[in-house]
Amino acid sequence: MKYASLFLLLLLPVPCLRGAEAPVFAAAIISRFETPEARQAVAVDGEFAYAINNANIIKLGQADGQVVMGWRSGGEAITHLDSGMVLDGTLYAAHSNYPDSPMANSIEVRRASNLNPVASVPVDASLGSLTWIDRHNGEWWAGFGNYDIIPDGQSQPYGGTSNTRVARLDDAFGIEQSWSLPQDLLARMRPMSNSGSSWGDDGYLYLTGHDHPEIYVMAVPASGEELLWVATVIVEGFNGQGIAWDRSGPERELWGIIRASNEILRIRMPPIAL
After folding, report:
1. 250 to 167, 206, 247, 254: CA distances (angstroms)
2. CATH superfamily of the domain spanning 4-268
């Protein structure tokens, strides 16, 4: 394990390079630590971080990255955990059978205190492969990935990146309404899709892909079926995957991972002044 403070927060917007007139801001990685399980996402609850891999979750102290406990899939049919969030002591993890077909999704619910299972809730796969789950303003939200890649042994793209969707869910995790992403943004994600997302306390949805050091700031339109791409935040050294806002305090801190180096990142985010 290693833990180091790095860089300073950059607050000023820089010239727009991505998206139709969407301003670009810069953030900075302020600390990091290594754990082999940092492969898909990280969830946080103020004191602990939860590194999420395909079929296991490790709970670590935020301050030093020391392992507190872990869980690994045994008899459960867990194949591809993709992201997670913690709410009121409960960890909700988005799960799918990616890259198998036909698609199948579930939300794996576990106690954050001991990682013991609470429930496994099936989720409709008609919109795609479930990649993230979050709670905002008393409602559930989720992302459904679709990909231009053709999985081994299959002959068709896995849903097609253009079909990526963000949806609002009811309390039983049924789909109520969904939105597409702008074509310019989908072009940034190809051949992959939307990997992670987390609602900020500023009312914007912060969304990631799989490859670029970018976090996309999105807004839900008053009408229409396409989310609005309002800004981009650059995080040098980052490359997408599952993210989570730390909602325990006033600081604008977002957590993410670097898949290639198995690192968990604490990111100081700039205010999005539009």
Report:
1. 28, 17, 8, 12
2. TolB, C-terminal domain (2.120.10.30)
